[in-house]
Amino acid sequence: MNKQKRAWLSVTLILAIALVLSACGSKTNNSNGAGNAAANNASSNNAASGDSSSVDTLKGKKIALIMQFNQGTFSAQYVDGVKKQVEKFGGKVTVLASDNDLNKMVSNLDTAINQKYDGILLDHGNADALTSGVNKAVAAHIPVVAFDSGLSVEGVTSLAQNDQMLADKSLEALAKDAGGKGNIVKVWVAGFPPMESRQITYASFLKKYPDIKEIAQFGDASQPQLDAQTRMEAILKQYPEKGSITAVWAAWDEFAKGVTNAIKQAGRTEIKVYGIDMSDEDLALIQDPTSPWVAAAGADPSSIGQVQVRYLYQKLHGDATDATVQIEPVFVSRDALPTDKKLTTADLGEYVQGWGKSEQGNTDYLKELEQAVGK
């Protein structure tokens, strides 16, 4: 009987010790959990307020800009906008151009991931070519913001001009000036997300204006300006009579420059050119009273670069950014521009409402970062 009592007391003592230890462990875990939650909340509050320690972590970032192609003044001004904004944030940009070769662009993306850049900007390309590499970047915790790439990848912000609005503004101006009738030439190329979007509007345009007839179309992205000039020269020989061609709609400013050269050299300036995109070079041609290029729809390429960088730095800051961001275009016609002085895109905003510096994507902490870097 004594043995049984002693055994029972031993078991009771062991159970009591186990319960005490379990309670202590539970209190320790709860304490750690509360501490982690408090730390997370403090971190979130610091990020939201843009405190100095949060801003300091954004300095010195290495950014890769991976471009499908970098031809023309639009691309040059876009790159300038990217570089200047990153420099204002205390970072450095490396441009990896792909010479209009999607395989090379994919390789450049892999290079940026393997070299552990802090952030990646994409310019053009398409979803089929880039999605796998972008997923790899996201898995490596490298933020990505794409421009005109047609991407739909979770965690990636895709920036684009409102391409259907670009097409609509330029085409409606053509229809108005032509009186809703005439023969037109379309310069466009398939395979690029912005071009495909512009084509949707173009198809609707032809249905809306049945008396406007497309008599020819062409387009090559490899040497866009030279190819457009050569092909337009051939079409002008095919339609030599004045009045046989009313206008040309060019879905890219490089195309517009090429056809403008051909028309001007042939002395056929009764043919009007309507384009998309706007750069300093484009603006000079539109202002020239002897040029057939009379109007274009576009957004400031430098501002596009700045906005794209801001969204990337939001991601570097830990913010949740929108999946898609649209840049609203404006319409620029010769009629709205002065005749007594030459303009650049820097002062175009004085004459065209909506053009110029954009605050899109800016935040209080990014403004604070610029000020800190500028000191």
UniProtKB/TrEMBL annotation:
A GO MF label: carbohydrate binding
Q: Which GO terms describe its cellular component?
A: outer membrane-bounded periplasmic space
Question: In what residue span(s) does the Periplasmic binding protein domain sit?
Answer: 63-318
What is the protein's species of origin? Answer: Paenibacillus lycopersici
According to its UniProt record, which protein family does this protein belong to?
A: Belongs to the bacterial solute-binding protein 2 family.
- What this protein is called in its record is Sugar ABC transporter substrate-binding protein
CDD domains recorded for this chain? PBP1_methylthioribose_binding-like (cd06305)
Annotated signal sequence range: 1-23
Q: Which InterPro entries match?
A: Bact_Solute-Bind_Prot2, Peripla_BP_I, SBP_2_dom
